Amino acid sequence: MTADVDTDAGGDGPDTVLIVEDNPGDLRLIEEAFRAARLETTLHAVSTGEAALDFVYRRGEYVDAPEPDVILLDWNLPKMDGEDVLCELEDGLAQIPVVVMTGAHAKETIAESETDRIDTYLTKPSDPTEYVDAIHSVY
Distance between CA atoms of 97 and 84, rounded to whole angstroms? Predict the structure, then answer.
């Protein structure tokens, strides 16, 4: 799954956001939250950790991908999870902030992770209307 959404409605925030999310429902809520937050942002979405790395390193179908200003990374991805993705990001990409998104039950797993590449994390809201507040809390 790859989706590009232009949320250019005015406001502050990052210009280009890479969303790494395998759940189509969560992705839709995140995209809607960015629109509702009125951030001047272009969203790019991938559904796997492997695709996230291809996007960031501009490999395969992502050869012309822009460098993201922020990566929103689902922690619980199949095959290659969020921690694996972060471990694969080289030092040259350390300037890209990473916001980990996860369910409430995974906070301890994130805290115990071996990576120091997490800039912050968001607990995915249980109420869809709270996604806008979650996006504003980071941007």
Answer: 16
